[in-house]
């Protein structure tokens, strides 16, 4: 049974609402003062708060501010008179679910209450889910519920146990290194080193010594014996990142090591056996590199025994909310950011963005937004993406708007157009139109009163 808390300094309203809600089977708590509501909220058993806006001492707005910290899943409905609608709208910006005008129609009120309670159930469910990110959606440090990522997880599980080389391909920032990490740490070599080596950062002259090591006196400056990464990773995994950038001369030497399982340190003829698993990654298309003569075909075949292609983020939009959530939770844990959750409209914008920089770009955007957020709830306007998204249609608007456009009249015209368009899109169903606009039905009705109803098409 859902519990509704009613706060109003007018006793008549309290009595009337208590009776109405009880007859509908709700459990009802009432308070005349907002202060008395706080301990009830803190107990966490209030599903819905229905509060008057204007009250002596602590008012509805201040109470709303406390609800979020005391009982984040509770939905709040503001009761207000027509004259104070502006403040009710402000309250919704601060997180109220909806407002209802006094005096109200009982059927309207009950409908709004039922919808707000549905949202509470959803919020509770979400809170619970986000506290325990399902283990199905997580593999090692990788997160993903999309079928594409689930396939990647399956492949990782299948190859983790073997010693076969794996070629990991995917766009920049898509998670190739995390995939390599997961392969290593879920296999029998997990107790031995996982050693990432960036092939693009190796200079030709030093690369051979870096890979295979050198003996003392092998070249000027070689004052001591140095073990290369193959020997450092002994028994473990060598992750050759950006393998396409490996200088051609070294590609032949790498191939020989893969074939013979032994290395020769620079300055020595002696072969040293090595037991290392090779994982390689590249954001390039290695076949193209082979055709262009920049990558040895035999090495390509040797590395490409098993291939895992990490899909770009735009092809797995299902994962975006989950990744953004996880990233935000890490930031909150570290501290120092204001934003702690996303407004649904902000998530929508994240899901729509094409993410050329993939998960790394997403992480940067979330970090930026969490810092820039003006309240705990991260809004669309806190996202840098909004700038790029808005740029296009602002440019279109520029082409059409007269050079001298008065602010009020222009904004009203645009607002009216959007409201009427949403009504047309939803065949006049107000609840649907409100959803399209991301506002409540009461706010839509208020806007229609102010802006005017759409003209009926001539028949
Ligand atoms: N599925 C995922 N779940 C969680 N975090 C991820 C995921 N994919 C990538 N990341 C994070 O995104 C960032 C980039 O990932 P990573 O370094 O593995 O990408 P990459 O493909 O190796 O990129 P590059 O080609 O630029 O080297 C890292 O901070 C990583 O933790
Ligand atoms: Mg990488």
Distance between the ends? 50 Å
Total domains: 4
Low-confidence stretches: none
Total beta strand runs: 18
- Give the strand order, joined by hyphens, for the main sheet: 2-1-3-4-5
Helix content: 40-55%
The backbone outline, from C-alpha atoms, is elongated
Structural class: alpha/beta
Can you identify the CATH class of the largest domain? Answer: Alpha Beta
Q: Tell me about the biggest sheet?
A: 5 strands, parallel
Quaternary state reads single chain
Average of pLDDT = 90
Number of DSSP helical runs = 19
Beta-strand percent range: 15-25%
Question: What is the radius of gyration computed over CA atoms, rounded to a whole number of angstroms?
Answer: 31 Å
CATH homologous superfamily descriptor of the largest domain: P-loop containing nucleotide triphosphate hydrolases
Q: Can you describe what's shown?
A:
The protein is of the alpha/beta class. The chain has 4 domains: 129 residues, 3-Layer(aba) Sandwich (Rossmann fold); 170 residues, 3-Layer(aba) Sandwich (Rossmann fold), CATH 3.40.50.300; 75 residues, Helicase, Ruva Protein, domain 3 (Orthogonal Bundle); 48 residues, Arc Repressor Mutant, subunit A (Orthogonal Bundle). It is 49% helix and 15% strand. The chain contains 19 helices and 18 strands. A 5-stranded parallel sheet has the order 2-1-3-4-5, sandwiched between helices. The protein has a 5-stranded parallel sheet with strand order 9-12-15-8-16. Helix 6 packs across helix 7. The longest helix is centred in the first third of the chain and has 26 residues. It is elongated and about 100 Å long. The model has no long low-confidence stretch (mean pLDDT 90). The site of adenosine-5'-triphosphate (ATP) has 16 residues, from strand 7, helix 7 and helix 15.
């Amino acid at each position: 049974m859902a519990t509704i808390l009613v706060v109003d300094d007018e006793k008549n309203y309290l009595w009337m609402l208590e009776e109405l809600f009880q007859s509908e089977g709700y459990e009802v708590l009432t308070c005349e003062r907002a202060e008395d509501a706080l301990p009830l909220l803190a107990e966490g058993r209030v599903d819905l708060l229905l509060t008057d806006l204007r009250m002596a001492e602590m008012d509805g707005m201040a109470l709303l501010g406390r609800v979020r910290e005391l009982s984040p899943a509770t939905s709040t409905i503001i009761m207000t008179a027509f004259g104070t609608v502006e403040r009710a709208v402000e309250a919704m910006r601060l997180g109220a679910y909806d407002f209802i005008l006094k005096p109200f129609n009982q059927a309207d009120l009950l409908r709004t209450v039922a919808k707000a309670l549905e949202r509470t159930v959803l919020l509770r469910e979400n809170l619970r889910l986000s506290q325990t990110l399902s283990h199905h959606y997580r593999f090692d440090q990788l997160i993903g519920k999309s079928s594409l990522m689930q396939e990647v997880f399956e492949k990782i599980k299948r190859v983790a146990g073997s010693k076969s080389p794996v070629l990991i391909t995917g766009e920049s920032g898509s998670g190739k290194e995390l995939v390599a990490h997961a392969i290593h740490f879920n296999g029998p070599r997990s107790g031995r080193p996982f050693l990432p080596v960036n092939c693009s950062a190796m200079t030709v002259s030093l690369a051979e010594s870096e890979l295979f090591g050198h003996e003392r006196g092998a070249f000027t400056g070689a004052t001591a014996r140095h073990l290369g990464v193959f020997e450092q990773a002994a028994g473990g995994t060598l992750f050759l990142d950006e393998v396409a950038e490996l200088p051609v001369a070294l590609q032949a030497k790498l191939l020989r090591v893969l074939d013979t399982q032994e290395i020769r340190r620079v300055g020595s003829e002696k072969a040293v056996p090595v037991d290392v698993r090779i994982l390689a990654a590249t954001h390039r298309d290695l076949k193209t590199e082979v055709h262009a003569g920049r990558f040895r075909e035999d090495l390509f075949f040797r590395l490409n025994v098993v291939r895992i292609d990490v899909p770009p983020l735009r092809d797995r939009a299902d994962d975006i909310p989950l990744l953004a959530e996880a990233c935000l939770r890490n930031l909150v844990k570290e501290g120092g950011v204001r934003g702690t959750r996303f407004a649904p409209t902000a998530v929508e914008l994240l899901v729509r963005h094409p993410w050329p920089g993939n998960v790394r770009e997403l992480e940067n955007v979330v970090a930026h937004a969490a810092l820039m957020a003006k309240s705990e709830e991260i809004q669309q306007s806190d996202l840098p993406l909004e700038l790029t998204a808005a740029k296009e249609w602002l440019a279109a608007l520029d082409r059409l708007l007269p050079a001298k456009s008065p602010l009020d009249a222009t904004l009203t015209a645009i607002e009216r157009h959007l409201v009427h368009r949403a009504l047309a899109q939803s065949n006049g169903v107000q609840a649907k139109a409100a959803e399209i606009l991301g506002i409540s039905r009461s706010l839509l009705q208020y806007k229609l009163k102010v802006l005017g109803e759409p003209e009926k098409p001539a028949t």
